[in-house]
Structure formats: structure tokens, C-alpha cells
Amino acid sequence: MLALTLTADLTGVTNLQPLDTAEEPYFYTFKVQCTSCRETHPNWVSISRFESTEISGSKGEANFVWRCKACKRESTASIKDAPKTYNHASPPTRQTIIEFDCRGLEFTEFQANGEWMAKGSETPTKFTAIDLGEGEWYDFDEKSGEEVSVKDVKWEIRRA
User: Fold this and answer.
1) Rounded to whole angstroms, what are the CA distances from 44 to 47, 54, 68, 95, 109?
2) In what order do the strands lie in the sheet with 115-120?
3) Is 57 left (phi over 0), alpha (psi -120 to 50) or beta?
């Protein structure tokens, strides 16, 4: 079991999470490594919790099925539950966003491609189309008259 964790400095916002619905799925993008031969796939791979692929020689399915080019071993990863929200904390704390059940592979790096959303920490303002690809995001909350931000974004993949 692996967990994607986030540590970030939130100012004026809370409940940060990927926009991940059946209508608008979030594609979690990773570098992947075979746990058998330790070969790392040269390309980024994407996984959605709303897409499943059959596992060879099995009746099961997984959100991501991958065959290592080096050792030919087939590996799988499945997303366990919907993503959790990242809540404002001072000082910033590491919080789990999503967990994966990985068999024969490990995710080694995460790339924040896709939209995130949050809400004002002191107002009902909803913020959408948040892009964390650059490691920070800034906006203005009209209701509070204050700047809001997500800064110092740090992703980590850990054993759950």
C-alpha cells in the first residue's frame, strides 16, 4: 500500500483536493518502477480511479496494469478510495491525499497535472481550476478582500 501525501502552506483556503468525479476524472501522474528488477519506466504514466483494466490470467481488474519491458513481469495498482481533502494547518503538516494498492510496482514521483479545488477558510468562496503544477497558486477572495494562496507544495509517496 502506497500513499500520496501533500505538505503545503495554505493561506485563506482549506479543503484542497483534486477535482475527481466520474464526469471529470483526475489523472494521477507518476513515474513507475518495477519492484522485481528495479527498472524505472522512462515515461510518466497516468491512473484514474474511474478506469479499470483486466489483469492477464485473472478475473480481477485494476486501475493500472503495466508490464515491465525489462523483466516482462505484469504489475498492477488500484486506487482504494476517493481522494481526501488537505486541510489548513499551521504549521503545514503532511496529509494523505490518496492511497494505492500496488502489486509488483512502486510509484516514485508525482506530477500534479489537472485541476484542484478548495474553499475559503473564512468565507464560503469556492475556488476551482487550481493548478499546482508550478508548486504554488495565488488568487483573491472577493468576500474577504484578501489574497489566498497555496505555497511550498511538497509531494511524497510513502508506505501506507
Assistant:
1) 10, 21, 14, 24, 9
2) 13-18, 115-120, 126-131
3) left
Question: Is the peptide bond prior to 25 cis by the omega test (within 30 degrees of 0)?
Answer: no
CA dist., res. 116 & res. 149, Å (int): 13
Residues in the chain with pLDDT values less than 50: none
Cell of 50: 474511474
The Cα–Cα gap between 13 and 144 comes to 11
Q: What is the widest separation between alpha-carbon atoms in the chain?
A: 59
Residue with cell 509517496: 157
Give the tens place of pLDDT for each residue, 17-49. 999 999 999 999 999 999 999 999 999 999 999
